[in-house]
Amino acid sequence: MEFSIENLEYFLLIAMRISAFIVSAPFFSVSFVPRRVKAGLSFVMAFVIFNTLEYEPLHYVGTIGYAALIIKEALAGLILGFAANICTMILSFSGHFVDTEMGFSMVQNMDPTSNTQATVTGNLFVYTVTLIMLVSDMHLMVLTAIIDTFEIIPLGEVRISPTMYTMMVRFLTDYFLIAFRIVLPIFMCILITNVILAILAKIAPQMNMFVVGLQLKVMVGLAVLILIVGLMPAITDFIFNEMKDMIRYATKILGG
Questions:
Q1: Could you give the C-alpha distances from 114 to 30, 33, 82, 185, in angstroms and in order?
Q2: Segments making up each domain of the chain, as ranges
Q3: Model-level pTM?
């Protein structure tokens, strides 16, 4: 293919959407992934897409018009990557909810992937699901999703609609429902334990239920947590389906 200004314009638009997606997408946006790896992956993907897609003429006027197209492509990549990445926040919230019930809410450490404070169980959920996704090649499906968006949202045809807030409303609705479904077994066991402790406090008021209850809830929570580990593949599949739905919904909005 001969080099021309038109080809350069197409390549820059493709590279901008891919780069913005890599920066905000799960698996690839974590801090311990070297920037050179992110830049190299973005360049390779943009080069492959550039040589496989058919293009429609770009419609813009002057340098400012092309700069507007660049900004739209960057926003499209960031929104699509963020739509996929926010689904992993469900796991952090579930872990925080579990630790609050078990009494581990004050035991927090620094999460190196997001540079934020996270609870122990939250890190366990996030790392376990991430490893399962990597082993099952779900990260390749995430890359396939951004490649498919070029067929649904042609270059230069990104629509930044005010209805974008509906995506966040939908996510917040699913956020609490999915998180509560993940922690429901531990929540119910801890609730039953609290009821038993309340009954014992009435029957034997001389017992120190605070000391007994604290240790009992930790043991019950850890026992149920061990049983939940066997359900992590199903939770991973559930989170991945939610991720696909969010990307599909964001693509639909950006495509107008």
A1: 6, 12, 13, 28
A2: 5-254
A3: 0.79
